[in-house]
Amino acid sequence: MSGKHSSSKRRRSNSSANEPSSRSQKESRGSGSASTSRSKGKGKGKGKGKGTGKKKGYRMAKKEVKDKQATGTQGAIRLHCRIMWGLFAQNSIPPPVLPATMAAFNARFSRDDDVDISAHIEDLVENAMPAGEKALAAVVDVQTKALLGRGQIALDTRRMEETHLQLIFNTIARAGLDRWAPDLFGPPESSYNVLHKQIALSTFQSVAKSFGYTHMKVNLNNLLSFNLLSKLYDSFVYNYMTEIARKEATSQGRVGREQMKAVVRNRRVTLADSRSQYLRNQGYRSELVQLAEDPDAHSDDELIPNVSPAKYAIYDKPGRSSLLCGLFRYADGQAKSHDQRSGVREMRTREEPNPSAGPSPWFKRHPENVPIDYFTPDYWNQELTVREKVEYMNNGIVLPLEAHCHSLDSITKWKSLSTDEFMKKFGNDKLALYNMPTEDELARLAEMDEEDEEDEVDEDLMDEDDESGSGSD
């Protein structure tokens, strides 16, 4: 396509149709340094959601936790609460409080009773042993679930001394509770929730002072500050866990889906780190390293069930260049060989299944700010819209034609070149395969954007007229 056009994203709404369009400009655009034309780390806008269900003011910032040297203590309190709840996975849902449970509590702790809950629980903790039959059954249940669990929470629970678990659950039983279950949607200051908080913190202090959480690196000085422990508890229970309960209440299975999505993305982040590190260590062009650093440029994968040792099926990445994919897979192989020689833990084994696994069900959008040749020429020319092309057309070329990638000798000739040298010797030949938006297409986009802006102004004026006339008779 003739009439290739240089344009920036910002100029889409006001670009001029009279700008020159020549072969030399196409080359200039394609040779633009990806490290400058692609803003690293650009992300989508993150609006603040409304009505999250979180209790205002209970979130404790990471900096505050770190400043108080309470990171280990925070982790231990979270584990302590999960043990009492019986929740041993990140996506476990805290149970709701049953009406019968609340009725039984109200019968035991009437508002008319002058009960010092704090003193009452401290007395129960001091006299919690020996454990009763109910507590022993709860301990066995916890140990069984932890044994069957696979994550870090289950592993940390298995490290707990049985006598410490007995103290926890006997205190719960002697407090008259069938189970420990705070009312996440009720007021934190209610008698019911105060009782649960006191049980959690008093038993936590007792276990921690007995070195039950040494493996969690608890700062024992933190145990002297009940105010700090209270803030850590409230942040976890009334911020983090309440949000999990709210999400699940609004959409069943949502928490599990979000957790799986996070796991898949974390695997992709690890993959990006490994590949970009290899390319960096081998002296590849900075534009290519920057592309590899973007997790969205890599494929998702999923654990293949009932296969040992573990293997992961690779999902397709629609539109991505097979040449780029081949380079990434080569980097995987080299990284794995390096790990074997170094005696460190090797990368996961990933493979393309037959038949194909298809596109990822988790992340379907194209990555932002990738170079032009992230896409295959056919996909760019036939699938992307003009507006989509405008988003990428200034992002440069990072790889030569396939003929220059078949051997280490041929790769060595281009992998460390400057942007200008690379484009002159290799990049412009690759760029010629991609059809860029024409001047007419870009001018039409600009006109459409201006029309949209005018429509928005008209709507605003109509809204103002409606407001000014709403108070008149």
From TrEMBL:
Residues 336-353 have a biased composition (Basic and acidic residues). Residues 448-473 have a biased composition (Acidic residues). Residues 14-23 have a biased composition (Low complexity). Residues 1-73, 336-364, 446-473 are annotated as: Disordered. Residues 1-13, 39-60 have a biased composition (Basic residues). This is Uncharacterized protein.
